[in-house]
Amino acid sequence: MKFLLVFDFDHTIIDENSDTWIVKCAPERKLPNGLRNSYQPGHWTEYMGRVFAYLGDNGVKEDEMKRTMTTIPFTSGMVDLLGFIGENKELFDCIIVSDSNTVFIDWILKAADFHEVFDEVFTNPAAFSSTGYLTVQNFHAHHCAKCPKNLCKRKVLKEFLDKQLERGVSYTRIVYIGDGGNDLCPVMFLKKDDIAMPRQGYTLEKRISQLAQDLSPVQCSVLVWSSATDIMSYLKLLIKE
């Protein structure tokens, strides 16, 4: 009996969007209108590349970015939940699939000493260039029309499960915890024994409700959460079953 926990990061593990939080490092804590308006739907990673270039041009250094990012609050109850998962790692494999980037997630998890809770993190690769600028790339290429150009979370989840099966690991149940529109594609991949846990009042919950109204509901069970304490209560029931 082993369970797979799949977490989104922004607005799920942390209570903010890491990509918009970094703007606190910009001059006057805001971006010029031209840059802000340059975002095109489905091309967020390219947009963030321009944001990082702007920060670099304005002399924002790695240590300042790191200090800023590690002040992001965790979602209510999340510190307790991650502690609980860490204590029960023999029952839970735990991964992050996120549209943030490797540098931000690494900083935040390590600062709070949670990096060992997660077996793998799938997110856009980022690094500092020799000139000290943060650069970011698309996670992968895919052919899914529903997802942003840089990341299809269903593809990530499917490839992870296939790789685990090759290693002889299969899961009794997958629990998917997220909030955003890009979490719907992997949720639609889940089977009837699995469970989707959308955050209350966020896009994922609304999209799942809409599918039910359109009489094409998701196959898995759905349990809405507002605090990570709700998730912990469910996991405690799960391991008693």
Model description:
α5 (78-87) packs parallel to α10. The protein is 39% helix and 16% strand. The mean pLDDT is 95. The chain is built from 10 helices and 8 strands. The chain has helices spanning 18-21, 33-36, 44-57, 62-69, 78-87, 102-111, 153-166, 184-189, 203-213, 228-240; strands spanning 3-7, 92-101, 120-124, 126-128, 134-136, 173-178, 195-198, 221-222. β4 (126-128) and β5 (134-136) form a beta hairpin. It is of the alpha/beta class. The longest helix has 14 residues, at 44-57. It folds into 2 domains: 2-15 and 74-124 and 141-239, HAD superfamily/HAD-like (Rossmann fold, 3-Layer(aba) Sandwich), CATH 3.40.50.1000; 19-70, no CATH class. The strands form 2 sheets. It has a 6-stranded parallel beta sheet with strand order 3-2-1-6-7-8.
Topology:
Blueprint: E1 3-7, H1 18-21, H2 33-36, H3 44-57, H4 62-69, H5 78-87, E2 92-101, H6 102-111, E3 120-124, E4 126-128, E5 134-136, H7 153-166, E6 173-178, H8 184-189, E7 195-198, H9 203-213, E8 221-222, H10 228-240
Parallel strand pairs: 1-2, 1-6, 2-3, 6-7, 7-8
Antiparallel strand pairs: 4-5
Active site: 8, 10
GO molecular function: metal ion binding; phosphatase activity
Binding site for substrate: 19, 99
CATH class call of the largest domain: Alpha Beta
What's the arrangement of strands in the largest beta sheet? 3-2-1-6-7-8
Alpha-carbon distance between the two ends: 10 Å
Using the CA coordinates, give the radius of gyration.
18 Å
β-sheet strand percentage: 15-25%
Q: CATH topology of the largest domain, which one?
A: Rossmann fold
Question: How are helices and strands ordered from N to C?
Answer: EHHHHHEHEEEHEHEHEH
Q: What count of structural domains? A: 2
Main structural class: alpha/beta
The CATH homologous superfamily name of the largest domain equals HAD superfamily/HAD-like
- Fraction of residues in helices? 25-40%
Number of helical stretches of at least 4 residues:
10
* Total DSSP E strands: 8
In CATH terms, what is the architecture of the largest domain? 3-Layer(aba) Sandwich
Active site: 8 (nucleophile), 10 (proton donor)
GO molecular function, one term: metal ion binding
InterPro entries: HAD-like_sf, HAD_hydro_PyrdxlP_Pase-like, HAD_sf, Pase_PHOSPHO-typ
Keywords: Hydrolase, Magnesium, Metal-binding
